[in-house]
Write a structure and sequence with these properties.
Layout (H helix, E strand, L loop, with lengths): L2 E3 L3 E4 L3 H12 L4 E5 L5 H5 L2 H19 L14 H15 L5 H7 L1 E5 L2 E5 L2 E4 L3 E4 L2 E4 L3 E3 L13 E2 L12 E5 L3 H13 L2 E5 L10 H13 L3 E3 L3 E8 L2 E8 L2 E7 L1 E4 L3 E3 L13 E2 L2 E2 L12 E3 L11 H17 L12 E3 L4 E6 L2 H6 L5 E6 L4 H6 L5 E6 L5 E8 L2 H13 L5 H5 L9 H15 L2 H12 L2
Parallel strand pairs: 1-7, 2-3, 2-8, 3-4, 8-21, 10-17, 11-12, 11-17, 12-13
Antiparallel strand pairs: 5-6, 6-7, 9-18, 14-15, 15-16, 19-20, 22-23, 23-26, 24-25, 25-26
Helix pairs in contact: 1-8, 3-4, 3-6
The structure holds flavin-adenine dinucleotide and nicotinamide-adenine-dinucleotide (NAD).
Nicotinamide-adenine-dinucleotide binds next to α6 and β22.
């Protein structure tokens, strides 16, 4: 072995989780090594959140330009130049890449090693034949990879995954998307608004992890925009013919054919555990990922697993960064903070956006909690009416005393307005806090105040309240 290193912390994987863990560890002044086999930044920067957001930004402008006549603004002949959109997506990635570059990490005190990491034993990792690392603690942040479903005929021709779709330099004329989770739904709306014909296929319900009322509002909008959505389908066969693809599906016992120019698989992801030598390190794992306890510790006490590779955890960038902070604190200080299972919010960045903090109603029911639902529609909100963005609602779940358990907002800017609710849930606040706070007006955030008023409204007509008012009136 050419070199042996003995850092305090060795992080494997340089996605958003690994980068956060490595920089956090180095900020405490401890020797830190980060191993990455590909480009730094992982899914978040290269194939996930950043390119999707850049695509959706262009799509929103195209949709706004087309809809502008309703506001008395005529924008005729809206044209999409996909080459510019492609360039903007990759410019955004390039502008953000320096934040996690080898040089910047070196500046923080992180040594980056390029190559494939593999455990040799319980506390030794090798990178090829060149480097051996014996660290005090390891943080595994190797993320996940797209799963390609086994459909007869699929492998006989080309198809896209979320890893390759952002390499497209031309707009797909007729796009079939398999997978109606957040990625499939966001990309369906993005490509449709840019001019593709889009068919979105789900084997189960679309946006199945979201509140069904909220998901139906998003799906209705997708259909209004001309996206063909089919759920509960079985994928029977794929035929690649010249420059097109024909997919046979079965729906309600009937077979039908869906044709397109391109096929995008956004169906599922699997944890990236292969080739890591987990068994040599006695790290328990299965198809769902690396098994962790509530402190993100694996069956090998020296090793933590975070982000997409950790079994049973939400797969999103915010979970990966949250985990990174917890794992580093546990590894360095043995503080043992535990993962709070409702701490990680989620947002589907369609228009309307679908945002959740804390529990959904389904989760509250599964946990047999006693709860009350408060709702307020967007069409009662001043800003929503003034801007003509009235599709949506807020749904708040509170316990009997009003403690906020969960919030789902579907509507304009839901991804921004959910932030206040994330704070409220993290601090264990009561819905009264929303009544007491003064909000700027007119804002979409005011729908939160409306539900708080609804919670307390029944009290205002109670006999004892009337009696107090009567007594005070007598006293002058
Ligand atoms: C299309 C799409 C859109 C998304 N949009 C959002 C969004 O809007 N918001 C959100 O919160 N989440 C979003 N996500 C999910 C989010 O991107 C991921 O949950 C998050 O990036 C996972 O981070 P990670 O650090 O755990 O893993 P990854 O980003 O997968 O990084 C893992 C890294 O480890 C490296 N690696 C793997 N094995 C080894 C090895 N043996 N040795 C060395 N290196 C290794 C990989 O090369 C990779 O760079 C999206 C995902 C997709 C696909
Ligand atoms: N805005 C966001 O926060 C955001 C956006 C995109 C992705 N993500 C996260 O990234 C991860 C990946 O997202 P995703 O949407 O690709 O995956 P997902 O697992 O969330 O959804 C995949 C969908 O494909 C379906 N599916 C599974 N197997 C299938 C098969 N064999 N054939 C057809 N359909 C199948 C599932 O039922 C599900 O509806 C998720 O954890 C997601 O939460 C987050």
């Amino acid at each position: 072995m050419a070199e042996t290193l003995t850092p305090d912390i060795c992080v494997i994987g340089g996605g958003v989780g690994g980068l956060s863990a490595a920089t956090a560890a180095a900020a405490f002044g401890v020797p830190t090594v980060l191993i990455e086999r590909d480009v730094l930044g992982g899914q978040h920067l290269n194939t996930g959140c950043v390119p999707t957001t850049a695509l959706l930004a262009a799509a929103k402008r195209a949709a706004a330009a087309r809809d502008s006549h309703a506001f008395g603004v005529k924008a005729s002949g809206v044209e999409v130049d996909f080459a510019v959109i492609h360039r903007r997506i990759h410019d955004a990635i390039a502008r953000l890449s320096p934040n996690g570059s080898v040089e910047r990490l070196a500046g923080f005190g992180v040594r980056v090693i390029k190559g494939e990491a593999m455990f040799k034993d319980r506390r030794t990792v090798t990178v090829g034949d060149d480097v051996e690392i014996r660290a005090r603690r390891f943080v595994l942040a190797t993320g996940s990879r797209p799963v390609v479903p086994s459909i007869p005929g699929l492998d006989t021709g080309p198809y896209l995954t979320t890893d390759t779709v952002f390499a497209l330099e031309q707009l797909p004329a007729r796009l079939i998307i398999i997978g109606a989770g957040p990625a499939g739904v966001e990309l369906a709306q993005g490509f449709r608004r840019l001019g593709s014909d889009v068919t979105l296929l789900g084997t189960g319900e679309a946006l199945a992890d979201s509140d069904p009322e909220a998901a139906s509002i998003v799906l209705a909008q997708l259909e209004r925009e001309g996206i063909v959505v089919k759920t509960g389908v079985a994928l029977v066969h794929v035929s690649h013919i010249s420059h097109s693809v024909a997919l046979t599906i079965e729906i309600d016992g009937r077979q039908e054919m869906v044709e397109g120019s391109h096929l995008l698989i956004a169906a599922d992801r699997k944890p990236a555990t292969e080739g890591l030598g987990l068994d040599a390190a006695r790290i328990k794992h299965d198809v769902s990922g690396i098994r962790v306890n509530g402190k993100l510790r694996t069956s090998n006490g020296r090793v933590y697993a975070i982000g997409d590779v950790a079994a049973g955890q939400p797969r999103c960038a915010s979970a990966a960064t949250y985990h990174a902070g917890l794992a580093v604190r546990n590894a360095l200080f043995r503080l043992s903070p535990r993962v709070a299972d409702s701490a990680v919010p989620s947002v589907v960045f369609t228009e309307p956006e679908l945002a959740r903090a804390g529990l959904t109603e389904t989760q509250a029911r599964q946990r047999k909690l006693k709860y009350r639902i408060l709702r307020s529609p967007y069409h009662d909100n001043d800003r929503a009416q003034a801007e003509g963005r009235t599709h949506g609602q807020i749904k708040v779940i509170v316990d009997k005393k009003g403690t906020i358990l969960g919030v789902t907002i579907v509507g304009a800017q839901a991804g921004e307005t959910i932030a206040a609710w994330c704070l409220a849930i993290a601090q264990g606040m009561n819905i009264r806090a929303m009544l007491d706070v003064v909000l700027p007006s007119p804002t979409f955030a005011e729908i939160g105040k409306r539900v708080a008023i609804d919670f307390f409204a029944p009290n205002l007509t109670r006999p004892w309240v009337r009696r107090i008012i009567t007594w005070l009136r007598i006293l002058g």
